[in-house]
Amino acid sequence: MKKVLFGISCALVLASAPVFAAPSVNGSTGLINNPSSDVLREGEFSLGYYHLKDGGVGIFNTNILPKLEIGVAGFRYDDQDNENYVNAKFSILSESVMNPGLAVGIEDIANTRERSAYAVASKALPFGFRMHVGAGNGRFDGVFAGIEKTLNPISVVTGNNVFPATTLIAEYDGKHMNYGARMAIIPGLKLDAGWRDHDGYVGVSYTY
After folding, report:
1. pTM for the whole thing?
2. Residue 34 has what DSSP assignment?
3. In the 8-state DSSP scheme, what is residue 40?
4. Nearest alpha carbon to residue 132 among 151, 118, 148, 149
5. Is the pLDDT at 9 greater than 50, yes or no?
6. DSSP letter for each residue of 114-170
7. Of the candidates 123, 148, 122, 124, which has an alpha carbon nearest to the alpha carbon of residue 134?
8. How far, in Å, are 20, 25, 63, 164, 202 from residue 155 at the CA level?
9. CB of 193 within 8 A of CB of 180?
10. Alpha carbon of residue 14 to chain centroid
11. What is the CA 1 to chain-centroid distance, rounded?
12. Using one digit for the tens of pLDDT, what is the confidence trace for 69-106?
């Protein structure tokens, strides 16, 4: 019986871990504002756009070396100067059933607004939960954390209705609590919506 329960837990963990990886608003692969320990694999890239209250941000990430993700996030504001962030993240330890993933990274390398270095660990848990805990300077201002809850790892079809695979997200980014939902429409394509820094946001991303 214990072996059966362990096997079910492992299956749930593996099913929930990589499915919803997508760019964060600040560019690096992650949650809403927070990065996770996930990095794009060799040959992968991601594109994304988030519409924010005061503008929008376009994102491009890719993998140039094993375990190294680099990218750029271009913020275009309505009433202030535009900003471009160059980001990098390196995976120190890949996540497995038994151990968390661990990565280090730096956002806004050129210090356009606030260069921020961080380390973050991510671990999938049974029943569709996944935890992320990290610490950094700059915009992180100490400890940051987040939790995901995958409602359904695959899309559910009921009659003529389709409910896409959906993950709920809550995070503390060092200054604010943010809340959102991420839906996988088709493989690689995700829609995001939620509440960030006291304002709503929507976004779309594609990872190939």
Report:
1. 0.85
2. S
3. P
4. 148
5. no
6. --EEEEEEEEE-GGGEEEEEEEESGGG-EEEEEEEEEEESS-EEETTEEE-EEEEEE
7. 122
8. 13, 24, 28, 4, 20
9. yes
10. 17
11. 35
12. 999 999 999 888 999 999 999 999 999 999 999 999 99
- Answer yes or no: is pLDDT of 23 > 80: yes
Are the CB atoms for 48 and 203 separated by under 8 Å? yes
Per-residue DSSP letters for 164-201?
Answer: -EEEEEEEE-SS-EEEEEEEEEETTEEEEEEEETTEEE
- Name the band, by pLDDT with cuts 50, 70 and 90, for residue 2: very low
Element (H, E) at 9: helix 2-16
Structure tokens at 195: 């509440």
Residue 20's contacts (CB-CB under 8 Å, 6 or more residues apart) are 148, 150, 165, 167, 182, 184, 190
| Angle at 173 (CA atoms; ends 167, 178), nearest 5 degrees | 45
Read off the tokens for 93: 């330890």
Is residue 35 packed enough to be buried (19+ CB in 10 Å), middle (13-18) or exposed (0-12)?
Answer: buried
**What's the chain's length in residues?**
208
Contact status, residue 39 vs residue 23, Cβ threshold 8 Å = no
Token pair for residue 85? 């962030």
Enter the DSSP assignment of 71.
E
